[in-house]
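Input sequence (915 aa), recorded before submission:
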Amino acid sequence: MSENKDPQVAEQAGSVEGVKFVYDFTEGNKDLKDLLGGKGANLAEMTNLGLPVPPGFTITTEACKVYLDSGEEPAALRDEVSAHLEALEQRMGKKLGQTDDPLLVSVRSGAKFSMPGMMDTVLNIGLSDKSVQGLAKQAGDERFAWDSYRRLIQMFGKTVLGVDGDLFEEALEKAKEAKKVTVDTELEAADLKKLVTAFKKIVKKEAGRDFPQDPREQMDLAIKAVFDSWNGDRAKLYRRQERIPHDLGTAVNVCSMVFGNLGPDSGTGVAFTRDPASGHQGVYGDYLQNAQGEDVVAGIRNTVPLAELESIDKKSYDQLMQIMETLENHYKDLCDIEFTIERGRLWMLQTRVGKRTAGAAFRIATQLVDQGLIDEAEALQRVTGAQLAQLMFPRFDEKAKVEQVGRGIAASPGAAVGKAVFDSYTAVKWSRSGEKVILIRRETNPDDLDGMIAAEGILTSRGGKTSHAAVVARGMGKTCVCGAEELEVDTKRRRMTVPGGHVVEEGDLISIDGSTGKVYLGEVPVVPSPVVEYFEGRMHPGADDADELVQAVHRIMAFADRKRRLRVRANADNAEDALRARRFGAQGIGLCRTEHMFLGDRRELVERLILADTEDEREGALAQLLPLQKKDFVELFSAMDGLPVTVRLLDPPLHEFLPDITELSVRVALAESRQEPHENELRLLQAVHRLHEQNPMLGLRGVRLGLVIPGLFTMQVRAIAEAAAERKAAKGDPRAEIMIPLVGTVQELEIVREEADQVIAEVQEATGTELKLAIGTMIELPRAALTAGQIAEAAEFFSFGTNDLTQTVWGFSRDDVEASFFTAYLEKGIFGVSPFETIDKDGVGSLVAAAAKAGRATRPDLKLGVCGEHGGDPESVHFFHEVGLDYVSCSPFRIPVARLEAGRAASTSAGSDHR
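Predicted structure, token format:
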């Protein structure tokens, strides 16, 4: 938000000459999203293209920021709105809310980034007890006028006055029951008049005031309500989920109303220039006759496919197809379009670059390259590593025995299994208890957002691909099946009845397939994704039966590999993981954690080494460990032949290799009480007490362990050197690098390096093999980062251990804090995302950047990498590219994601706003 927190200063800002807070649709363009929001910028762009857009104006995000910071609208705003309203009235030939032929407007939110359903909209502003009569006379349709009026009171009451929306819905249901009808379009004018009276009573009782009859008061209050909705709970939750900055504010669009609820020759719809679920070209969307726009996205009435509009109104259909082609060619991307037909006349209400599934994103990007609309660099901006990760999730096994109970619209792909829940509160509660859940609703609304986030998937019995559930699920990458009409959802009794009479109670397991729309009872087994099979080498993209999606992924990955500067390595501790990482495209191993090699049967040897009282005991343990270590490294160097392998010397917190002190104490106490021999246990307990640490993560580990236990690190260096010599003798190409962990001062590194160089020289002399083993260190302590220039004098490479660096910079114990208070920090907005998931650029990141700069100032050829799990995080990869690292290293499964993001980071093409 604006840094200006002083109301007086904020008010002055609104009166500064030259500051403009309101833009007519004819004044803006699509590049002004920061100022006009996405909706306003695109309405202006369509106006500029000569498309049929109802006249209107946009109040800027800057006005919203002033209001949110100060609690007051800018001083100049009211006069600017009045001037633009007067111009709109002159253009339309009628005044807002006049009694004979009223001008009506909508007031709609429009932030820079699409936030479907998260902020507020009010339609039909300008209607009152008097003007509704004029609207009925002008339209020649009394039912239409009263329907529009009841919608205004309902929206205004809920959005502006804070009335519980369920009260209006209950009154509407009662009106339908009294009339013995099932849909609101069957209510007649007299019924709607009664409903208006009932709605006004609800407003009076719940809001403590009458519904405002002054049209300008309606509009002004609605504008403030839209501003306020930026900080509504659901909007803040959505922004946290989608990582949208909280300081952008929303624009407000005031648009002259056009009506889709004027009868069978009117209607409203949503269209996509390509299928947002698959990416295929064709006619995709939903249309609803005799309805206003909110009816479609709310999913409260089932729509017809857009293709049926051709038989309903061919003229409007043909015009819409032409406009869709114009917009896609103009925006060079999938466009999401809202439109209304008023008595046979088509109006465009919105367009935006449409949200899409992960699979659709990859297909569309390659299609647009083939059409010559975008180049490879731009194609990389149209996909994300997060989307690629979604495509690597398993899918349902088509060969499994299943019990299908329904089928809806495949709105957002994926294979989701979980326990049925019927409200968002339960979804969140059960999810926090570790349960996987499927949220089942008749239709979702913005208040269901927290439940949608918590659920594995979403199932609705109403709505289509453009409903709230579908749009939000696609944006979040959640599996979603919509419009499964054969399923009877009873949210009050918390159950769902399927064809044949079977009842799914809350807590029963169900499975939904967002790729086919199928719904199954019980848990359906899953199989690997074809994208994973491709990365594993089990599916060739050029094969005749290759999955179309695999071909698109293959091409995008080729684009990324050609563009990227960052190399991508793997965190792998054994040959099996190394081989898999290599198939996934790893260009080496950036972190081999040798402590993982000593678990299981070998743990006792390390325990003996640590607890050794005499040199003979220590030498005996080392002698047994050496051949085991050498065998590990021979296998690893063989799997990664020709590629670098960075081996981190032993870095366990000491307690991981010592007997549990409590368990050992109990054994000794029991032996003493039974007067049994226990000399060995007592000796061991005394040693464990001597070495016991209150905080092992900050104790005797890493380089400290190597300095305190003679021979430990030299044994490992010898094993590495001998393994490399053996591989060379076998005509291999080992490229080992030795990494010293937890260094805090250059003196530690110098001592270990001197010993390591001596061992390597001994192995070279003994084997007659020349060995080039780079020696470097892990930068994982703040002091190491701050003294990186000195440490670089003794290091040939740095690898940033951002997991530990994050812990030591923040003073967090990761194992404790994530479960204790991170949830509260995320909910309060202290964190936008966990600093263990995405690198904290301001704190940890600044140390990484400073250390990289200082290290290279000392040693220009210093190799720089990162081996914490941040190396596979999409946003973090971009940061590491910017600060000049040479490579990132991550777990094998995340290698494709890191490759893609490294390519995206290197691409300088426009298009960074695509989400």
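Checked by second reader. The first strand starts at residue 22 and ends at 24.
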